[in-house]
Amino acid sequence: MRLTTFALVVCAVGLSVTVASAQTAAEGAKPATTSAADPATSSGGATQQPGGSTSAARPAPTYPKFFSNIQFGGLADAYYDYNSNKPEGDAPFRNFDTRHDDPRLSMAELWTSKAPTADSRFGFNVRLNTGHAANMIQGVEPSTVPVFDGRGNAALQQAYVSYLAPVGSGLQIDAGKFVTQHGAEVIEAKDNWNYSRSLLFTLAIPYYHAGVRATYTLNDKVSVMGAVVNGWNDLKDNNGAKTFGAQVTLKPTTRVSIVQNYMVGAEQPNDDEDIRHLFDTTVTLTATPKVSIMGNYDYGRDSVGGAGVSWQGIAGYLKVQATPRIALIPRVEWFDDSNGFMTGTTQALKEATITGEVKLLEGLFTRVEYRRDLSDVAVFTRNTGEARTSQNTFGFGILYSYAFTTR
Questions:
Q1: Residue 48 placed within a domain
Q2: Percent helix, strand, coil in the chain (nearest 5)?
Q3: CA 93 to CA 85: how far, in whole Å?
């Protein structure tokens, strides 16, 4: 394992130990509380010194508002998968947990962020990660700057600054590189329901964008967002056109969330004429305190030399929180690449996943998962060279994360 990878893992795990120790030491250094009858303290808060003199209590230190409410965190994510086809390289149509019989660090990540508020209007978000997942995410980046292109030891997954403009309830403006707003799943496994990423996450949507976006909350039920970016997965634009995005988030009740996204722009290298459209819808329902349901639908279309191409897919999720520590999460999907634009083959893919999650300690948990992928074309290949229409995987991931916020 490379030195940078090892260092980030040590930092991610050691971060929690350092902070926990500092907090314990701080608590241990607190003076004992005195009662109202303690002769060492006067009713005015002055401390009685030997010889009868008094001194005023020292005021608590104050800091500029900008340095309060800053979050620091880290995570480590490792996995093992057994694939029935025993592929030599990455399993097809999978992201991140792609290697057969090869225990691997998927991702180590460090981050710091500050959300802008009415009292402190500037903020930021920076995430630095490394590992197999980081390299896959940044693998198609046109930029040749090592910290952005992912072909070095580490990559900046996000790096943007924020400003909360004093407009109505507050207009938040972000500028820089940020992860996509599309989809039901995100890059960090700890924030998803399942361990493996869905077909829709892998094939239907982008990972990240670079540009400017603005978000405004109309009320507690409606918020909107607009963005102007370089395009899909490119810090450095791969053509001369810009891409535009819009989002509406609806929360009609406390149990229901509906997120509708739309993005349009030219995405192919050195091609400003062929325009890509992406429609993305995610609906989440908290049926009971222990049962949640989620659905995600994507439809995209583009053109190649003026000829139209399209893809679409749907995913359904169910999460049953059996106990505070144990959850069971099935997922089913269908993805239609009717022109072979996203997968390289005209086909319909399906997958079914069952995930069991067990929380071991605070911030530490594991997910055990079985998944079956199917296609109507023999696109999967065994290590013997035999073409097949399916692949089965059994695996588990171990995830740890820790974060703290300055006061």
A1: no
A2: 15, 50, 40
A3: 14
User: Does a structural domain hold residue 51?
Assistant: no
Instruction: For residues 198 and 87, give the distance between their C-alpha atoms in angstroms, rounded to a whole number.
Output: 19
Measured distance CA(163)–CA(81) in Å, rounded: 43
List the single range of 81-85, 135-139, 227-231, 279-283 with lowest mean pLDDT: 135-139
Helix (H, G, I), strand (E, B) or coil at 235: coil
Question: Greater confidence, 2 or 162?
Answer: 162
Residue 58 in any domain: the answer is no
Query: Which residues face 55 on adjacent strands?
Result: 47
Whose tokens are 């005023």? That residue is: 56
CA distance 96 to 93: 10
Q: Which residues form the domain of 133?
A: 3-21+71-405
Residue 73 CA to residue 13 CA, distance in Å, equals 10
Number of domains composing the chain: 1
Rg for the chain, CA atoms, rounded: 25
**In a 10 Å sphere around its CB, with 0-12 CB exposed, 13-18 middle and 19+ buried, how is residue 294 labelled?**
buried
- With tokens 């605070």, the residue in question is 362
- Structure-token pair, residue 312: 């679409």
DSSP state of 67: G
Q: Quick check: 211 and 237 in contact, CB under 8 A?
A: no
338 to 124, 143, 210, 392: CA distances (angstroms): 41, 31, 29, 24
11 DSSP 8-state letter = H
98-116: per-residue pLDDT in tens?
999 999 999 999 999 999 9
CATH of the domain at 335: 2.40.160.10
Is residue 267 very low, low, confident or very high in pLDDT (cuts 50, 70, 90)?
very high
Query: Does residue 63 form part of some domain?
Result: no
Distance between CA atoms of 295 and 317, rounded to whole angstroms?
A: 6
Taking the alpha carbons at both ends of the chain, their separation in whole angstroms is 37
Amino acid (one-letter) located at 270: N
